Amino acid sequence: MKKEERDACWKAKDELFACLEKSNEDLGQCEMEHRKLKELCPKSWVKRFIGKRKFDREKENIIKEWGDQQARENLEKVRNYRKMKKEQEKQEDEFDIKTATKSSNKENNE
User: Fold this and answer.
1) d(Cα 56, Cα 16) in Å, to the nearest integer?
2) Per-residue pLDDT of the chain in tens (110 residues, 90 and over written 9)
3) What pTM was estimated for this model as a whole?
4) Who contacts 49 (Cβ-Cβ below 8 Å, separation ≥6)?
5) Pseudo-torsion of CA 70, 72, 74, 75, nearest 10°?
6) Quick one: residue 25, left, alpha or beta (phi over 0 = left, psi -120 to 50 = alpha)?
């Protein structure tokens, strides 16, 4: 990905997030910005941008609700949970790939 493409991707992300701020997180009102982000950025980047935004918003809400010390303890629990879920997804993806490969090999042998 060239620098100009990366810059355009990051600009699209900033525009979407600014729209979400203005619309109180209503993605329906930011459809054009969301579509632009998906057009200009790799799928993995979009997933990362959106996931990080959700995490940061959750973090802000936890801090507001529980106070600083309690929030830090709970954020650590959230991080550990997310790491576990990410590892589970990775293992499921690897299982799907292995299953598809075995199925393909079996069909080729027949």
Assistant:
1) 15
2) 899 999 999 999 999 999 999 998 888 999 999 999 999 999 999 999 999 999 888 888 877 777 667 767 777 888 888 888 888 888 877 776 666 666 555 555 55
3) 0.58
4) 13, 37, 41
5) 160
6) left
Half-sphere exposure of 107 (CA within 13 A, CB side): 6
Residue 15, number of CB atoms within 10 A of its CB: 16
Please count the residues of the chain.
110
Structure tokens at 23: 């619309």
End-to-end CA distance of the chain: 42
**CA distance linking residue 42 with residue 97, whole number of Å:** 21
- The tokens describing 44, both together, are 């993995």
Residue with tokens 């579509």: 35
Structure tokens at 78: 């959230």
Q: Which amino acid is at 91?
A: Q
d(CA 73, CA 11): 34
